[in-house]
From TrEMBL:
Chief location bin: cytoplasm
Gene3D superfamilies the UniProt entry points to: Enolpyruvate transferase domain (3.65.10.10)
Name by which UniProt lists this protein: 3-phosphoshikimate 1-carboxyvinyltransferase
Oligomer and partners: Monomer.
Keyword Cytoplasm among record annotations: yes
Biased composition (Polar residues): 1-10
The organism's taxonomic lineage, starting at the top: Bacteria, Bacillati, Actinomycetota, Actinomycetes, Micrococcales
Source species of the chain: Rhodoglobus aureus
Any Pfam family hit: EPSP_synthase
CDD domains: EPSP_synthase
């Protein structure tokens, strides 16, 4: 189990004498809520932005500082991997409850290491093109579950760039490459229909290729376009202007990646379960520090949650979702028909809400979620149906019929968004116990503490978020 030193994942939303029994010791009893919410929360930095900025700072033309970065398993894996490649990364204490800033000093990229990708898509897809710029052999592996995630496009694209890659034919981790200290670059075509991260990984490193890169996506569909736009925006802020002469084609000029200090935005996708809680419980949840403009797809929650009858208000740099009376207060909200191809990482929270809706929902455009931390379509339908739900899977999505749900064990499949989807359902359904709540450490180790704050008015303090931080 990963325990971030910036959190205390053991923190429970219950008083010591009121913790419900679970059928299996170690399961997390998802708290129900019996009152309308009225809570305001801050969240730690964005995973997607933190791991992009770590890579770009490592490839930049001088030292820089990342302010308010995420500290979680995915960012820790990225930091360790970059250090193994010869990049200097040190913590700069600030008093921020979510952890210190990071000072990054680029170095000559060196081989000779084995990189643990854990279960992080951003590590396994972003770092191989960076490693190709190093000198020497570099091996990539990860969790057992990571060995099921699609990697063929990364492997094929590196080979198309002339990089020597050793891999069996399965198109997954583990594999290794032999970096020659430079990559010529040029013109390659890839099929990124399984993940936008194949595109982002190449774009992030391409300015450091001798001839830059012209990248063409040849597959039928391309999920998560906002994440590619995020990559392009992060590069632009560092002076690398990526042109897209036609959809699915990107041209990255060779040149320096400028070192800049960056303030990270809070993770808006991680806001999804907290804001969804207002829809279920009624009342309001406010997320502080909501950026006025952003490339994060989590910003779509402002439009998505009103589809379930909630109202969204932006004021004073915060987003508030008000769920009215909520299901808990005796209200109901309708199901939805939605193509979520641009925001697949929001799907588990949206599907959890759909499972509590009063009419059917159909979510499409999310077939690629079968290659996420787990096959999310199979996992969501199995877990909701085990609680008495009626979810059917099709290739590209899920259909959810309204049913009265009952308690039971909700499996996380080591997937942080499965854990949090179970917590949303548990707000309204007595006796839901979550197996594997620790999976939330992937991007939000403070989830149990923040959820306790949300449902139980337990103040978020240095005791429940930063016990072992030693900064304050
Ligand atoms: O580039 C990124 O930071 C991400 C891209 C998306 O991946 P896919 O395109 O594989 O869905 C998203 O789901 C993931 O959580 C983060
Ligand atoms: C798909 C996700 O993660 P990853 O970055 O590992 O792909 C996610 O966080 O929903």
């Amino acid at each position: 189990m990963f325990v971030s030193k910036y959190s205390n994942p053991e923190f429970s939303p219950y008083d010591d004498d009121s913790v419900p029994e679970t059928t299996v010791p170690g399961n997390w009893p998802a708290p129900t809520v019996s009152h309308a919410l009225s809570e305001s929360l801050s969240l730690p930095g964005s995973k997607s932005l933190t791991n992009r900025e770590l890579v770009l700072a490592a490839l930049a033309d001088g030292p820089s500082v990342l302010h308010s970065p995420l500290h979680s398993r995915d960012s820790a894996l990225m930091i360790e991997a970059l250090r193994a490649l010869g990049v200097g990364i040190t913590e700069v204490p600030t008093g921020n409850v979510f952890g210190p800033d990071l000072a990054i000093t680029p170095g000559e990229l060196e081989g000779g290491s084995s990189i643990d990708c854990g279960l992080a898509g951003t590590v396994m897809r972003f770092l191989p093109p960076v490693a190709a710029l190093a000198l020497g052999p570099i091996a990539f592996d990860g969790d057992e579950a990571a060995r099921r995630r699609p990697m063929r496009t990364t492997i094929d694209s590196l080979r198309a760039l002339g990089v020597d890659v050793s891999a069996d034919g399965r198109g997954t981790l583990p594999f290794s490459l032999y970096g020659m200290g430079s990559v010529a670059g040029g013109d390659i075509s890839i099929d990124a229909s399984a993940s936008s991260q194949f595109v982002s990984g190449l774009l992030l490193a391409a300015a450091r290729f001798d001839n830059g890169l012209t990248l063409r996506h040849t597959g039928e569909k391309l999920p998560s376009m906002p994440h590619i736009e995020m990559t392009i925006a992060c590069l632009a802020a560092r002076g690398v202007i990526v042109e897209s002469p036609e959809p699915g084609v990107w041209v990255v000029p060779a040149g320096p990646i400028r070192a800049i200090d960056v303030e990270l935005e809070p993770d808006l996708s991680n806001a999804a379960p907290f804001l969804a809680a207002a829809v279920v419980a009624g009342g309001s949840v406010t997320i502080e520090g909501w950026p006025a403009s952003t490339t994060q797809v989590g910003a779509d929650l402002e439009q998505l949650l009103p589809l379930f009858g909630a109202t969204a208000t932006r004021a004073d740099g915060a987003l508030t979702i008000n769920g009215g009376t909520g299901v808990i207060g005796g209200g109901s909200y309708p199901g939805i028909e939605l193509d979520l191809s641009t925001g697949g990482e929001l799907a588990p929270a949206i599907v959890a809400l759909a499972a509590l809706a009063s009419s059917p929902s159909t979510i499409t455009g999310i077939g690629h979620l079968r290659g996420h931390e787990t096959d999310r379509l199979a996992a969501l339908s199995a877990e909701i149906n085990a609680l008495g739900g009626a979810v059917t899977e099709f290739d590209d999505g899920l259909h959810i019929e309204p049913r009265k749900l009952h308690g039971g064990v909700w499996h996380s499949y080591e997937d942080h968004r499965m854990s949090t989807a179970g917590a949303i359902i548990g707000l309204a359904v007595e006796g839901v116990e979550i197996e594997g709540i620790d999976a939330t450490a992937k991007t939000l180790p403070q989830f149990p503490a923040l959820w306790a704050t949300l449902v139980g008015d337990v103040p978020l303090t240095t005791t429940n978020t930063t016990t072992s931080l030693g900064l304050l």
